[in-house]
Amino acid sequence: MTDGTGRTTVDSATPDPTLRTVDLARTREMAYLATNVRGGTLAVGDGSSEDFTPVELLMVALAACGAIDLEHVTRKRADATGLTARVEGHKIRDEQGNRLTGLTVALDVDFPDGPEGDAARAVVPRTLRMIEERLCTVGRTVTVGDHVRYVEGRSAQA
Q1: Regarding the domain delimited by 53-144, which CATH topology (the fold level of the hierarchy) does it fall under?
Q2: DSSP code of 70?
C-alpha cells in the first residue's frame, strides 16, 4: 500500500502488508506524544494547550487524506500551485454517545494557467467524488464504520 505519494507505508516489523500502527505515550498530565513507524511524532492533548485534540486529528486526517488523493490524481496533468483544506463538523452528545456529525471537507486547489492546468482543473469534480466514494481510507472508514476495540495491554491483537 502507498500513502498517496507512492511511498510504501507498511510497518516493516510485520509481514502483514495491511497492518498500520502508531504508538502513543504520556508526556505530562493530559498530554501525549504519538509516534509512527517512520519516527514521525505529533503532540496530542486535551485542548488545554496548543496541541491537537483527538477530534482535531481526525479532522486533519480527513483533510490530509483528501488533499493527498486529490494531488495524486491531478499531478498527472499539472502540479498544483496551491492546495488548502478546511474541515467542519459538529461535536455532539446523544443517545449514541459523543461523536461528530455533518463532516464536510472543502478542498481548494490552484493550478497554473494553460492547457495542463486546465486539464487538471477539469478532473477535480470527478476526483472529489472518487475521494468520497472510494479513495480516501480515512473518510471511507468514518463513512462505512467499523467497531473499534479498546483493550488492556501492549497489543490490540489480544
Answers
A1: GMP Synthetase; Chain A, domain 3 (3.30.300)
A2: H
User: What pTM was estimated for this model as a whole?
Assistant: 0.85
Name residue 63's amino acid: A
Contact 87, 104 (CB under 8 A): yes
Longest CA pairwise span in the chain (Å) = 57
Give the separation between CA 17 and CA 152, rounded to whole angstroms.
25
CB-count exposure of residue 32 (10 Å: 0-12, 13-18, 19+):
middle
Domain ranges of the chain: 1-52, 53-144
CB of 5 closer than 8 Å to CB of 38 = no
pLDDT tens series, the chain, 158 aa = 344 444 445 555 668 999 999 999 999 999 999 999 999 999 999 999 999 999 999 999 999 999 999 999 999 999 999 999 999 999 999 999 999 999 999 999 999 999 999 999 999 999 999 999 999 999 999 999 999 999 998 765 54
Query: How far apart are the C-alpha atoms of 96 and 141, rounded to whole Å?
Result: 18
